[in-house]
Every structure is written in structure tokens, then in C-alpha cells.
Amino acid sequence: MDSVVSGANFLLQNVPGAAFTHMKGKRNSIDISPDNMFPYLLVNIGSGVSILKVTGNRKFERVTGTHIGGGTMFGLAKLLTGCKSYDEFLQLSQKGDNFVLDLVVKDICGELVCQKQGLSTSTLASSFGKVITSMKKLADYKPEDLASALLSAFTYNIAQISFLVASLLGLRRVFFGGSYIRGHKSTMDNISYALNFWSESQMQASFLQHEGYLGALGALMSYGDPRNENLNPEESQEENSHEAAAPSDVTSADEHNDGNIFPYLLVNIGSGVSMIEVIGKGKFERIIGSHLGGGTILGLARLLTGCSSYEEFLELSRSGDNLAVDLTVGDIYGERGYPKIGLPASTTAASFGKVSSGKLSEYKAEDLAAALLNSFTYNIGQIAYFVANLSGLKRIFFRGAYVCGHEKTMDKISRSLKYWSKGEVQTTFLCHEGFLGTLGAFWSYENMGIDGLESQEVIREVLLGAPHTGQFPSSPLTHEQDNGGNTAAEAEVERLRHDNTVLKSELERLQRENAELKAKLVKSGEAATM
């Protein structure tokens, strides 16, 4: 990484036109003044992705990274398309249509809701999301379409994480480098479009002419240089603190009351992922989302493992070993890892980065399932942390049908949040996470006059009384409790029936009045004509 930074600085300071933008197929050179170059964010896309804050010559800090990078794209491309080289994968992607497999907002909400919410109908909602409702098998899809969907999924994700990191650091200049860009037009267009979209045109993606050779240039320049102070001890110590123990996330039931539950971040994991800041009853805002959600996991799982349901996929993942296909830092740098920047050998460097063959039969379905779950749950946890950090939120609730109370999913999300936040952000799950939409629809009847239901307080306590830890109460209701509950329920049903009768009577009265008014209008119209 020392060499990568040195190479980037050399190009930007000494080679005219070394940097350029690429949007909608158009390439434009940009002039970088050496006097006004720092600080900037360098996103280096290799097998994984490293994101570096560069503040001067030989001065930088690796602030974060992601295991979903070029190695992930290429590994999955080998398994899904059978391509033998990354360049072949890029050529395939140019001829494909990702919307054959990807779910867009219009597919979920329809055009009317999109207009109401101010969403573009073509916005990507869930990469590979259409696969989950299709009867097609892997052989039924064109390699070109699969390649296009893979490229869109992961380039957009890299751009989104880069935007969040740049926002947290207060940086507006973002350079993308690494051998997996390859000067490929669609890759650069995707990154540029996504960064422009997420930043609302406040950030611009910049690329480097010789992006695949930054490390070589830096190594050449450092030849014979005895200095080795590229990363100062304070920065190294700060990076290592990611591994520090974090306080327990357990929260007592008494903490969850109307007075102190707000504000919080609600992460809804459906086909895609929505992240919503909730500041009070009925007061919320959707901040951001991700197209890599449950639909992506299940869509890829169906193609790679042939599983027919999400439950079957989760069961497969339990007995699998993701390290059979995932590349670790130790695989790249050796058993000591990369201690200079605080990366232990066991850290995942690139999901699916070990895949060397395009034959699915050479890999266990269980290992592929474990790698998929590992990859996307960690990614969701990382993005959720960045969003919570930007919004100043310390509490995150995760819910959605794709969480499903699955202990391994919750454990991986919790580990991800604990790692990235150094234990400062609380990770909480809800016992009935798959039914919040149903409950919300039920409570919306308050607006129609059905208010003050006795069960409201009970349901609120059940949902927010305690975080879900995988332990469910096992004591059954006694006969007396059961009878008492039945009596209260019967009384409530009777009250609702009475209210329903009153409402019907009122509706009939209004209909009669409406008919009388119409008759009067007709008579007055006839009189005016005469």
C-alpha cells in the first residue's frame, strides 16, 4: 500500500492529464494542482478493496476496505459464466443486459408508488432479485446477462461505500485505481454514475491513466530509499484498535420506552436493503439503501447451489466453510497478516477470491452458501455502520424477512457492527422482525377511528421489550391465563363488532343523504333549463 500511494502521488504531481473523469462514455482529462492535491481518497480495487486517506507525500492511512472487490466479481464470474480471464468477463458484460436478472423499484412498487415517493422506476432495488421468483436454472441464463449483473452489483456497491467513507471524512475528491478497473468503460461509468447519484452531484469519481501500475511505479520510486516511515505509529495503533474488545450489546427491557428509544436506525433487509432514520412516532426518513440484500443472496444461491428456498440455503450455510472459497489476508501476505496497518491474517480480503475453476461441481454447495452469507451480511453491517455514523445514531435495529431469526445471520451482522464501530454502536434484533409491515398496516386503522385498542400496549411491549438474542421464552400459558386471554379477546371482538355495526349504519345514512342531494341537484338543473 505504501507503493500504491507513492505511485498515485507521482502520477498526479508529475504527469499532465494523468487523471480523468468518465461519465456516460465520455472521458475528460482533469488538471490537478500539486499545491492543492491533498487530502484525497484513494479507492484501490484489487482482489478486495482498500480505501486510503492520503494527506501528503508518504502520508496516508488505510481507513477501511471491503471484501467485495475484483476477486469477488471474477470468482463468481468463473462459477456463473465459465469465463477463464477477467478480460473475458468484462467483454461478456458489455454485451449483456443486467435487468434480465436484476429487480428494479418498478417491479416491486409499480409506477404509481414510484411517482408518489419520488423514486425513479428504473432504480436498482435488488441485484439478481428476479432469480428468486423465476423457475430458470443457471444454464437458462445467458453468460452475457450474468456478467452484466455481476459488474453492476459490485461496482455500484464499491461506489456507495466510497461515498459513505468520503462523507465521513469530509472529502470531496475520490480517485479510483487498481488492476480490476482495466480502463473498462462500463466499470468506470457505473462507478461514476453511482458516486454522482449517492452524493447528489457533490462528488466526482476520478480515474488514473495507469491505474493498474500504481504499486509498480511506487516500488520503483522507493528503490534504495532507506526511509520506512510511510505510516506513523499513531495511525497503525488506531487501525489495530478495530480488534479491541467491545462492550456487550445486551440491553435490558427497561431501556426500551417511549422516552429514550428515539432516534434509531431501522435496517430493513428485504430483496434489497432500506435504511430508515426514525426520530419519533410517525417521524422517519429513508436515508439510503443497498441493492445487495436478501434477493441478491437467494438469487445467487439458487444459481450456485440449486437450493429452492431461503431456509434451504440457510441450512446449507450452517455446514459450510467459507474459507474454502474466500481469500484471506494471510493467503496474500503470509501467516503474520499485514500488521503495519492492523490487518490480521484471518481477515477476509476477497469473498470468492480463491475460486480458480469455472466448474461448479468442484465446489461444495455448503461452502458456496457459507461464503455468500458471509459476504453479504458483513457488507450490510458495514454500510449500516457508516450510515449510523454519518447520522450520529448509536442504536440500530435490524429486521426483515431475510433475517428470519437465523442465529448465524444475526451473529455475522453483530460481529460486523462490533468490528467497524469498535463497540460504540448497539446492534439489536426484533423477535417478530418479519411481521412489522403487517403490524404497521394494522395500526394505520387508527386513522379511520379505531383507536385505543387494549392490545396496543401488549404488542408494543412484545416487540420492543427486549432485543432478540436467539432465546425464546419456553414457559407455556397456564389454563387460567389462557382462559383470561380468551375472555379479553372475546370482549374485544364483541366491541369491534358493535363498532362495525355503528359504522355501517353511519355509512348507510351518508349514502341516503348523498342520494337526496343528487336528486335536488338534478331538479335544480331542470328548473334552470326551463
UniProtKB/TrEMBL annotation:
GO MF annotation: an example: ATP binding
Protein name in the entry: Pantothenate kinase 1
Pfam families reported for this sequence: Fumble (PF03630)
GO biological process, one term: coenzyme A biosynthetic process
Region (Disordered): 227-253
Coiled coil: 486-527
Organism: Hordeum vulgare subsp. vulgare (Domesticated barley)
Gene: LOC123409779
Keywords (A to Z) from UniProt: Coiled coil
Cited InterPro entries: ATPase_NBD, Type_II_PanK
